[in-house]
Structure formats: C-alpha cells, structure tokens
Amino acid sequence: MIIASRVTFVLSEISPYGSLFALLGPATIAILAFGFLLTWLFDRKRTYLLILAGGFFAFSIGSAVQISQWPRNFGLHVMIPGALYTVCVLSLAEGVARRGGERMTRLFLVVVASTIIGLTFIFYYVSDNVVARIYTQNFGAGITMLLATRRMQNLRRGKLIDQVIFWIFTFIAIHFFPRVAATIGLNVPIGEVEFETSPFWIAFHISAALLGVMMSLALLAGAMIDRIDELRADRDADSLTGLLNRRGFDERGDLLLGDLSARPVSIIVADIDNFKNVNDNYGHAAGDQILQSFAMTAAKRLQNGDVGARIGGEEFAFLLRQCPPEKAHGIADRIRIVFQTRRPFADVGPQTVTASFGIAEAKVGETLWQLVRRADKMLYEAKRSGRNSVFVWGAPADADAVPPLAPDDNDSVMPIRRLTGRPSE
Question: pLDDT > 90: what percent of the chain?
C-alpha cells in the first residue's frame, strides 16, 4: 500500500506523462503476445501458443482502453476492458491446459464468461459500484484459474519446466484474492480520477506486467525446450523403424540400467533370419518392409519405460524394466510367433520370414554393452540351433522356459518348437 501510494504521488507529479508511463504495462504485454504469435508461426502444431497470444493481446488492448479513457462513453469504457480481461483469463487457462494435453470444457468457458461479464454489467448499469466490479473481476479470475488447475495435473506431474508453469499459473490465480485489499479506502461512488490514481489501479498494472512476464517467459521456455527435445528425439531415432538408433540406445539404456527401481532388467537381442538373402533376392525395399514390420510387432509389446532400438542392419535390442528373464522369454516368444505368421509380405512373395532371439538379465555393475554381448551369445546359439528360436542366458538346455502362450487379440499363432540354452561361463 505504501509503495502504491508513493507511485501514485510520483505519477501525479509527472502528469500529463503519467498515462504514458502507465501504457508501458500494456505495451509489455503486447510484446509478449507477439512473442507467442511468432513462436506459433515457427511451429504451428503448438496451437496453445496461438491461444496464449490471443489472451495476451486481449489484456493489452483492454488495459490500453482503460488507460486512454476511450471510448468516452463510460459504460463502454467499463464493459470493453472487463470483457477483454475475462477473455485473457480464459485464454490463459485454455492455453496452459492444452500444453498439458487437456482442454477446458466449452460449458465451463461459456458459464465463466457469462457470469463475469453479466455481473460487471449489473454493477455498472443496475447498481453502479466500482468495488463490486473489482471483486467480480478479481474473484472471478482467481476462482476460474484455480478451477482450471484441475485440468493441469499432467503439468504438475510433468517435467521441470511444466511444473514451473503449473505453479506460476497457480500463484497468479491465488494472487487475485489478496490484491483486492488495495480497494480499502475507495469510496462509492468513486470518480474516474480518484480511481485511476488509487493504490488498486497502480497495483493492478504493476502485478499484471510482472506476472505476465513471468508466465510468458516460462511458457516460451517450455516451447523452446519442447523443440530441443524433438530435435534430440529426431537425432536419436532410426528413421526407418521409428525405434531408437544406436546413439539413442546408448543414452537411454545407460539411464535405465542406472535406475535401481527398474530392477530386474532384462534385454532381448533379436536378428532377422536370412535377411541378406531377402535383400539379394527381393531388393532393399522388401528388406525395409520386413524391418518395419518387425519393429512394429515388437513395439506393441513394450511397456512404458522400456527401451527399444535398431542397433544394426537387421539387429534389434529391447531393454525391459522390472522384467525377469522368464517374462522376457514370453515376450520374445510372442514377438517371434506373431512375426513369422505375418506373411506373405507384399514384396517378398510366399517366403516365411523369421527371427532369432537371445536374452540376458542385467547384473549389478554391468555396463550396457557387456549385457548386450551376453545376449548376443544367446542369439548366436539360437542361430546355430536352427534359427527361429529363443535362448536365455543361464537357462537349462533344451527346456521350455514358459508354458504355451495364449494368442494376443488379432494375432495368428503357429506352434513351433521353442529352445533355450545356457552358455559355458
């Protein structure tokens, strides 16, 4: 209050430049709105940025209308900014919610807009009460934003920048309630000059500018981080299959092995049988089709947090969290069965295409590629034993590791002998 009163005194001393000084707030918000718009133009799939741009522009225009005292019809001077401020709050709520993959319901948006604008109309045209209008705008905005946080739980539980965005949004919602304390001392009815030099009016512009900058910087930083993550994902992805490439596998695999909560961790290493013959006889387009089919078949059986990659020409690796080798055997066998029944491939003719698998469980202190090498030995045993089979490190030779599998939905299953093996250590 003391600071606001001091600012009031300073503005009165520098009049008529006080209004120009006050316009710095809406000008700042307008620049931030342009920032959202330009960022959206660069990456148009992020529609939440366009919504935020619209909301920030609405606030900037509404604030400028109030400061400039235009239009001269005071009723419009009250209603236009009130409606634009409401649009800003709803756009901010919708934009932040969309960043988290959610949306506000249309009914919620309509009810909030109708209630706030309707009460503003009543407290001017029916019962002229500026304090009541202030309460309507501030409590309405605060309650609306607090209710909107229920649609932002993905942000609250998301990565660090999303959590920062969530808590800034929540802080902005809460700050509307103590801000109305600045209305203490306002008399009703109140004149335009008295209102526009009041502590509330000055606190309104100062807080709007500061919080607008905080919110926009966090959101723009989030968009930039998202773009960097996408570029990193493109760098680490195999363009043919959509799985990770060897570089991505190194990075994600090391992280998974270092996560003690993920234990036990098992790896499946797979290789397409006789793949060179397919390429030689039917061409590389047919080979690409087979690789894509195998990757799709395997990816459907991975769980959240698992790591799948194409680590060689026709060699794949799947690192499975909280998965003992017995369970990994069942997953590998399902992939093997489904893949070998998906024939004929369009460019390969009636030829059956199969795959072989090697499995090992990660040991404490073992590196990723030490684990891969042990699974590779099992893959070699599967190849040497006739291909189209699954071998597990440490399992008894020539023993069924798991009971027969029930088919998945839409899977066509052909029984085939499954083998496991144990190397000499």
Answer: 59
Q: What is the pTM of this model?
A: 0.69
- Higher model confidence: residue 288 or residue 200? 288
116 SS3 class: helix
Q: What are 299's two structure tokens?
A: 């990816």
Tell which residue, 93, 207, 97, 186, has the closest CA to residue 140. 93
Domain residue ranges of the chain, discontinuous segments joined by + = 2-235, 239-392
Rounded CA-CA distance 382/375 in Å is: 11
pLDDT at residue 402 above 50? no
How far is the C-alpha of 198 from the C-alpha of 194, rounded, in Å?
6
If DSSP codes are grouped into helix, strand and coil, which group holds residue 317?
strand
Task: Look up residue 358 and give its DSSP letter.
Answer: E
Specify the CATH superfamily of domain 239-392.
Reverse transcriptase/Diguanylate cyclase domain (3.30.70.270)
3-class DSSP assignment, residue 210:
helix
What whole-number distance in Å separates Cα of residue 180 and Cα of residue 169? 18
Catalytic: 425?
A: no
Considering the candidates 94, 192, 194, 314, report the single residue annotated as catalytic.
314
